[in-house]
Specification:
single chain, alpha/beta, Rossmann fold, Alpha-Beta Plaits, 6-stranded parallel beta sheet, 35% helix, globular
């Protein structure tokens, strides 16, 4: 596939790097030094120029392109770029936007703005936060098969009761598959005698109930998060509160700006909005913020979010989640003790990459950037997998593949070696990056 990526910032560069291994990628950016540097670092072609200009797109090869991804930091530029690309036949367009209003308009029409697929950075970050806080110690959560299957990635703390247990001892839950262990730079496919170690990132696939039960086993001292405090009434903070209200939460939200606090209070009927500085220790102590189950920092810059989370941890908050605008800071935040760092830019890059790969599957979740994938396939009657057992299929595939779940006629099946694949099954599979193409071909 020939792909044009407009915008060579953090999001565009990440998308280009992810796609370049399997596709012909051309990157367009108005900054010539930026595209030259990216073409030197990655296997991509570079074109300097304005991506919303038709002549620039022609120079980038739009006539032969299959897809255009507009990922600059300006919403209107991305929309106009997709509209410009729309005059060329057979080019699928993807636009990245920050403001949910554009997404809401796009969802109401038939290909508005000339955009085939739209990703909203702030809303995606809020959705990521909302999913993660429901499972203690979870770093990533995705759902498959219309909600019947859940994938979660857990970091195992040293004090967890499951640390030191073998997989056979820890795997005592119905409808749950231990799919993989990410241990430093290695991906370990668990066996019954594999011992779980502190610091492991464990990927599990199964029913939401079993995933929740395992989360409790990993951290039994962390009950379901009900008392949630959001510091910062940014767009991400507002969208997070709105999504939590939809799940019957009544969060508290701290916002310093008077006008913004008033607007938030009007828009969020189930949220208690407090007008104050979120880094004011006396205020936080007075409002008993230290007793909260989770504190989510969605302030305007990374430094403020880091400070708010560290202060909250000192006050005794059970878990901290920080929004990190600079992708490289995410690992630093988690290294200094922030429980979860959510990068809207990284989440957007992964969502767009996921969508491009998902055109061959029903759904795709990327693990650790793109080191591995969890894929959902609907098996049609023509598939070679029909009437074959899971054991037989696994033996024909490369190492690094685990069958995590199967849904059949709305029912969840935990796959075993003798489970036979039938037409119409939805199969959820973990695969390391090198095995993903073989899995797609087999199913």
């Amino acid at each position: 596939m020939r792909v044009i990526v407009v915008g060579a910032g953090e999001v565009g560069s990440s998308i280009a790097a992810d796609l370049s291994a399997d596709h012909d990628v051309t990157v367009v950016d108005i900054n010539a030094d930026r595209v030259d540097r990216l073409s030197y670092e990655e296997d991509v072609l570079a074109v300097a120029g304005d991506g919303s200009d038709v002549e620039t797109l022609e120079a980038a090869g739009i006539d032969d392109a299959d897809m255009l991804i507009a990922s600059t930091d300006d919403d209107l530029t991305n929309i106009v770029t997709c509209g410009t690309a729309g005059v060329f036949p057979d080019v699928f367009t993807i636009a990245r936007v920050k403001r949910p209003q554009y997404l809401q308009t796009w969802e109401r029409g038939e290909r508005p703005f000339g955009v085939d697929f739209m990703v909203c950075t702030d809303l995606l970050a809020a959705e990521t936060i909302t999913e993660v806080i429901g499972l203690p110690t979870a770093r990533d959560v995705d759902t498959f098969a219309d909600g019947l299957v859940q994938m979660a990635e857990f970091e195992l703390p040293a004090e967890s009761p499951v640390v030191g247990q073998t997989v056979a001892e820890a795997d005592r839950f119905d409808s749950l598959t231990f799919a993989a262990i990410i241990r430093e730079d290695d991906i370990v496919i668990p066996r019954g005698n594999t011992t779980l170690e502190a610091g492991d990132d464990l990927v599990v696939i199964g029913s939401p109930d079993s995933t929740q039960q395992f989360a409790t086993a990993v951290a039994p001292d962390q009950s379901d998060a009900r008392d949630v405090v959001i510091v910062g009434g940014s767009e991400v903070g507002y969208q997070t509160a709105r999504l939590l209200e939809a799940r019957d939460f009544s969060p508290r939200l701290v916002e310093q700006d008077t006008e913004r606090a008033r607007w938030l209070a009007e828009q969020l009927p189930a949220t208690t909005v407090m007008e104050n500085d979120a880094t004011d220790r006396e205020f936080l102590e007075r409002e008993n913020v230290g007793a909260a189950d989770v504190l989510i920092a969605t302030l305007e810059n990374d430094q403020q979010n880091l400070l708010a989370c560290l202060l909250a941890e000192q006050l005794g908050v059970g878990r901290t989640v920080a929004v990190v605008d600079t992708v490289e800071f995410a690992t630093i935040f988690e290294a200094v003790g922030i429980d979860v760092a959510v990068s809207p830019r990284q989440a957007t890059a992964e969502e767009i990459t996921r969508f491009t790969r998902g055109r061959r599957a029903e759904n795709v979740a990327l693990i650790e950037g793109d080191r591995a994938e969890v894929l959902e396939f609907e098996v049609d009657a023509e598939s070679d997998a029909v009437s074959r057992s899971v054991r037989e299929l696994a033996e024909s595939l490369p190492a690094g593949v685990v069958f995590g779940a199967i849904t059949r006629a709305g029912a969840l099946i935990t796959p075993r070696g003798d489970t036979v694949i039938e037409a119409g099954d939805h199969v959820v599979v973990f695969a390391d990056a090198e095995a993903a193409e073989a899995v797609a071909a087999a199913l």
